[in-house]
Amino acid sequence: MGKAEKSWSGMRKYLEREMLAEELRGRIRYHCSTAAGMDGCRFFELYMDGVCVKSFSWETVNSWFLSQEGLGQPRPMSIPDYWQDFWRRLEQCPLEQRSEYTDEEFCRALDCYRNSDIQQSIHSSNPIVKMFALLDRRIGKRTLAGLQKEMQRQPEWLRKIYRLRLEAKENGLPRP
């Protein structure tokens, strides 16, 4: 991997220009930022037509866990108890059972996508790997059509990306 590809700007160029389906160019954008005091944690975001449709960070996973009714705990927890239990819950709740993912899970999925055959990626059980594959220029109309039943079992955010890709593939060229 070249030096430029090790940087976020190089990776963004790879995703948005080299691998993105032509009909989606200008409609899909990736963003990465860091927050001061977050020990190197990043926020990755996916934008469709200028609207953020998915964020990948510890904060989004934390918010998701907090929104889950009862968090599997019979009593209210203190903040230290919550964070101690957070890591156990994260390990016990696989990606396929969640709709939110960490920045590290985003990076691992990107690495997996880059180092796997496109057919493995499009049928991956990892929804983030599948996201990259759905947006990939190597996926054609017939493959997309064949995913219809499989996509019904995916999280809503991923179905939204699938619908955009189908619509763009049917209509052909990107919007001006």
Give a written overview of the molecule.
By secondary structure, the chain is mainly alpha-helical. The chain has helices at 3-6, 8-18, 58-67, 79-92, 103-114, 118-122, 127-134, 141-146, 148-151, 156-171, and strands at residues 28-34, 42-48, 51-56. It has one domain (3-63, 100-171). Helix content is 51%, strand content 11%. Helix 7 packs parallel to helix 10 (156-171). It starts with a helix and ends in a 5-residue tail after the last helix.
Q: What key attributes describe this structure?
A:
single chain, mainly alpha, three-stranded antiparallel sheet, 11% strand, globular, disordered N terminus
What order do the helices and strands come in, and which of them pair?
Layout: H1 3-6, H2 8-18, E1 28-34, E2 42-48, E3 51-56, H3 58-67, H4 79-92, H5 103-114, H6 118-122, H7 127-134, H8 141-146, H9 148-151, H10 156-171
Antiparallel strand pairs: 1-2, 2-3
Q: Summed up, what is this model?
A:
With 176 residues, the chain is mainly α. It has ten helices and three strands, in the order ααβββαααααααα. It has a three-stranded antiparallel β-sheet.
Output the strand order for the largest sheet.
1-2-3
Number of domains: 1
N-to-C SSE string, H for helix and E for strand: HHEEEHHHHHHHH
Structural class: mainly alpha
Strand content: 5-15%
Nearest-integer average pLDDT: 86
Oligomeric state of the chains?
Answer: single chain
